[in-house]
Amino acid sequence: MVNVMPDVVGLDVTGVYYRYTIGKDPAADALVHVQNENALGSGYIFRETDDWSGLAGNTITKSVPVGNIPLQYWGIGSIDVEGEGTISDASVIYAYRVDQCANPQSSPSCEGYEPPTVPVTVEEQASYDALEDDAYRIATQKTDQEYKDEEAAKEDQSDDKERKARLERGLAASKNALALVNGISQDAILGAMGYTSEMSAYYAATIDGGSYADAPMLVDGKLPENRRGLRNGLAQQVLHEQMIDLQYQ
Fold first, then answer.
1. Per-residue model confidence as pLDDT tens digits over 133-162
2. Which residues, including other chains, have CB under 8 Å from residue 95's CB and lie 6 or more apart?
3. Has this prediction a pTM greater than 0.85?
4. Which of 11, 1, 19 is closest to 63 using CA atoms?
5. Rounded distance, CA 128 to CA 115, Å?
């Protein structure tokens, strides 16, 4: 019934209105029970029975007041036929009211309402005297010269910090520049080691002049004997034999 009725605190069911049509043989006995189970106990919180025994089928509309029964008692609802008969076009409507004083604190008009009490606390704060402030006393005890000396010391410290910061930035910049130059030199060396000459331009070059044809040197295809060479060869052979003979002598 929580899915049928609004889930509101203080809701009570005041009545049940139902309508249905029964089909049956007039000679047959039939009892129709319109009911709701007791969600917090056993049995039924509501049950209305219609006796159709010896009657022909018909449509009935009925209103049944139930008083003010809280919603949490209402369980699953159903229409059951005891005997012979069929139910069609059934409709069940629940009338309800909401008790605004289910929670007495919801309205001052409810019985048992108690006005809320809000604790009020007031923290006492001591009065502040600027002349008693430590900063004021310290400030009034110093002379103008003391203030000037303190400001000068602060400026000197600030200048020292600025000089140190500039020196650190300069050193960092020089280190970064050196690292950058070393990195560039290293990259240049590696690039030179891996350089490969492009030879395609030389392969495509051409030389003017065309081709040179062979000039025939032998007209009849025969070489004449060289008599001078023959004589030199014989002389060399004779000299060679003489040198060998001298070795064996």
1. 676 666 666 666 676 777 777 777 777 778
2. 13, 14, 15, 16, 17
3. no
4. 19
5. 39
